[in-house]
Write a structure and sequence with these properties.
With 157 residues, the chain is mainly beta. The protein is built from two helices and ten strands. The protein has helices spanning 16-20, 115-127, and strands spanning 4-12, 28-35, 39-48, 51-61, 67-70, 79-87, 91-98, 101-108, 135-137, 152-154. Strands 1-2-3-4-5-6-7-8 form an eight-stranded antiparallel β-barrel. It is globular. It starts with a strand and ends with a strand.
Length: 157
């Protein structure tokens, strides 16, 4: 159900990097491919200094349906991803947890989602103790379609 192209609409996170660079947010797309019927290959496309970059990650299935694990390098660098709520045709709300830090991301099948979906997202954000002041909305224009071979990164978030 997660397979296909998604547009990053919003992120709620206490990440200091996000707070400091929120004025530089770039339109971001994600392509999800299901491997071997279980794992997720996630390819994120976004601009950095005007150049399109692709970041490739592989999430492994965790114990329960809708739960995935990104194994990072080094101690304490794994990321748990949980599907909070979704309609495969229009939106997905995903939770990411690394250590004690949690963030919530809203993806849409298009760059814009309905007000009702934004309301649902904001309810999920409040449910994990985050608020509007750490919620960032991404541009709905300027998406990358691809990155050249010199701008592909394999790795963790």
């Amino acid at each position: 159900q997660l397979a296909g192209r998604w547009f990053l609409v919003s992120v709620a996170s206490r990440c200091s990097h996000l707070a400091e660079h929120s004025h530089q947010l770039e339109a971001t797309t994600v392509m999800v491919t299901v491997l071997d019927g279980e794992s997720l290959a996630i390819s994120t496309l976004r601009r950095l200094d005007g150049i399109c970059w692709e970041i490739r990650q592989r999430y492994l299935p965790a114990q329960a349906p809708g739960r995935f694990l990104l194994k990072g390098h080094g101690h304490g660098s794994k990321v748990d991803m949980v599907v909070g709520e979704m309609d495969p045709s229009s939106f997905a709300i995903l939770y990411y947890q690394k250590g004690r830090s949690i963030s919530v991301k809203l993806y849409g099948r298009t760059g814009r989602v309905s007000d009702a979906v934004v309301d649902k997202f904001e309810q999920h954000v409040r449910a994990v103790g985050l608020s509007d002041d750490v919620t960032y909305y991404f541009p709905t224009y300027g998406f990358c379609d691809s990155a050249d071979e010199f701008h592909v990164l394999d790795g963790e978030l």
